[in-house]
């Protein structure tokens, strides 16, 4: 419900700003990027908030605010007011995603946690994959932005109601938790309340793996249209990627159930790096859609495994920080990818940007095998 309601309006907001306010492309880009900044800023503090206060209360309050902001779009009668609402919407979105994933982990039995995180990610992907298509279809049929904003509010409010029914056991501090806390005294403790310092290697690796996705996801539409003559190539690309990602998460569940987190992460990275190599080497239909297939299969194995790595490095009272660190690392990698990709395309061409994407991904994979794999094995906490 979180990702369905949020992504339902995503492809329609540029149209809304153009039709309602006559906004240009530059203005649209600046306004719509505002929520990313506030979401990233909110996530830096969300882990601390989720770990310090009652998680269920934090979830319901942030989720309720997230739902109510959709009603704010209905009263955004001017460009400035709309920009303020859109920018502020990123804060409850960032907090809600951290709180919801942390509560999901809390209700999972420890022996099935790795598998459960995979299915949780699958639900997120399902909402993200189908909602833009539904939103565009409703716009064509109803021609009413207000109806779509109301639908997003209704779906988000339904998510709040569902989470209201969730009950999860109160956790007690374990010996491993106490040991971890005693290892992180002084100045390090203060920093670790906002980012899981024990997982800095995993975070750096994840940022390197997110970097190329920031480039590809941003420029695939214009690249497919200008270079390959595929006007709807981006839609087909993301459809293939989503289907392969969901299939991969389903087939990878058994391996996660067996606790093979490192195995899944390694396999997913190796598949993905081949996908980025195809995109950089083959400037045709094969390169684009081979990347979609391989990236979907690779990320489906890799992402839940990496999230499990963050969780396994943290005691239960730091799971909010672990999830916030996971999401923040991914967002930072995406952000730098978009920035560097734009500079590369401006100074050189698309192909230079795609080679940079492949090289950065390959460096992330090498860092995993050279350092992160062993570092994680040494630091992970036993249940």
Task: Describe what you observe in this structure.
The chain has 383 residues and is mainly alpha-helical. It is built from 15 helices and no strands. The protein is globular. The two termini are 30 Å apart.
Short description:
The protein is mainly α.
Structural topology:
Layout (H helix, E strand, L loop, with lengths): L1 H8 L3 H9 L3 H28 L2 H20 L4 H29 L5 H30 L2 H20 L10 H9 L2 H7 L7 H28 L5 H25 L3 H21 L3 H28 L6 H29 L2 H30 L4
Helix pairs in contact: 1-6, 1-7, 3-5, 3-14, 4-5, 4-7, 5-14, 6-11, 6-13, 10-11, 10-13, 10-14, 10-15, 11-13, 12-13, 12-15, 13-14, 14-15
- Kindly report the average pLDDT value: 83
What would the principal axes of the Cα set say about the shape?
globular
Number of helical segments with 4 or more residues: 15
In helices, the fraction of residues equals over 70%
Q: What can be said about the biggest beta sheet?
A: none
Count of beta strands: 0
Strand residue percentage? under 5%
Rg from alpha-carbon coordinates = 21 Å
Distance between the termini: 30 Å
> Structural class, judged by helices and strands?
mainly alpha
Q: Give unreliable regions as ranges.
A: 172-181, 183-189
Q: Output the helix-strand order.
A: HHHHHHHHHHHHHHH
Search tags:
mainly alpha; single chain; 383 residues
């Amino acid at each position: 419900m979180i990702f369905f309601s949020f992504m339902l309006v995503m492809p329609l907001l540029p149209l809304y700003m153009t039709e309602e306010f006559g906004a240009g492309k530059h203005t649209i880009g600046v306004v719509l990027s505002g929520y990313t900044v506030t979401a990233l800023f909110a996530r830096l503090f969300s882990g601390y908030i989720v770990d310090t206060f009652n998680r269920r209360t934090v979830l319901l309050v942030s989720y309720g605010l997230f739902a109510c902001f959709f009603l704010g779009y209905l009263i955004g009668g001017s460009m400035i007011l709309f920009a303020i609402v859109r920018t502020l919407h990123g804060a409850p979105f960032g907090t809600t995603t951290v709180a919801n994933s942390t509560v999901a982990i809390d209700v999972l039995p420890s022996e099935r946690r790795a598998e459960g995180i995979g299915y949780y990610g699958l639900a997120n992907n399902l909402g993200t994959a189908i909602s833009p298509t539904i939103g565009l279809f409703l716009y064509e049929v109803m021609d009413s932005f207000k109806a779509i904003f109301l639908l997003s509010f209704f779906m988000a409010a339904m998510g709040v109601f569902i989470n209201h029914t969730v009950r999860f056991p109160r956790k007690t501090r374990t010996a491993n938790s106490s040991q971890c806390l005693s290892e992180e005294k002084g100045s390090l403790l203060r920093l670790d309340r906002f980012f899981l310092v024990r997982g800095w290697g995993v975070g750096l690796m994840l940022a390197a793996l997110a970097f190329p996705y920031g480039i590809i996801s941003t420029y695939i539409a214009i690249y497919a249209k200008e270079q390959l003559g595929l006007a709807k190539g981006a839609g087909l690309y993301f459809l293939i990627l989503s289907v392969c990602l969901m299939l991969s998460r389903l087939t990878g569940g058994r391996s996660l159930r067996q606790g093979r987190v490192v195995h899944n992460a390694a396999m997913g990275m190796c598949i993905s790096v081949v996908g980025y190599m195809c995109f950089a080497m083959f400037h045709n239909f094969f390169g684009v859609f081979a990347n979609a297939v391989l990236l979907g299969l690779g990320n489906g194995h890799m992402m839940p495994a990496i999230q499990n790595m963050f969780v396994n490095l943290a005691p239960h009272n730091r799971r909010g920080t672990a999830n916030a660190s996971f999401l923040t690392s991914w967002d930072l990698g995406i952000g730098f990818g978009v920035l560097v990709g734009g500079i590369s395309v401006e100074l050189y061409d698309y192909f230079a940007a795609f080679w940079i994407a492949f090289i950065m991904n390959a460096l992330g994979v090498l860092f995993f095998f050279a350092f992160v794999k062993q570092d994680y094995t040494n630091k992970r906490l036993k249940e």
